Fold this sequence. Notes:
By secondary structure, this protein is an alpha+beta fold. It has helices spanning 2-19, 142-145, 152-196; strands spanning 22-24, 28-32, 37-43, 55-62, 65-73, 76-77, 90-92, 101-106, 115-123, 126-137.
Amino acid sequence: MISRILLLIILNSCLCAATFRVNVAQSCYQAEENHSITLEWTFTTTPHGSSRELFIDCSLLVPPRELILYQVLEGVEVPESQDEEFSGRVQTDKDVLREGRIRLHVSRLRTEDSGLYLCEVTTEDGSGSGRCHLNVSAAADVSSTQRPTVDPEPEGRGRLGLHVSLGLTAAAALMVKCLQRCCFMKHQKVSTFISAV
């Protein structure tokens, strides 16, 4: 009898561990340098779960190091564990944590923030992890993409002059065509009148 009870307890804990999941909202994020982004994971929660049994470790994997972005130990945030590269740039949405959602708002992105992000979650119901990739592209340098102009006025006047002269030429050609047609029509009427008389 005792062996059956132990077997049920073991099977129940295995079943809970098998149903515990950590999912990532998006597997790949794209952003530009100096902008912000929100990385989001969800995990399985139960109504009777205790926040004291909550352990979260979200980090950027940069071999051979692991840069900690966000950490919760026994249900309490540990901001001092955050790596200095992310200091003052990561905000969390604490209200959605109880719902099983981890939302990390990363601001002032740098190209060095690119890489694989791992979020590991452990509760009394089990543990799991979710991964996503962030690619931060360099901000477009406006000054290097524009060619320098010394005096934009002459180029603007030259193009304006070109467009005006093309328009006038087209109008003159159209007027000549209309005059030819009018003259041709008058000539036909005169010829028809003369042949009728």
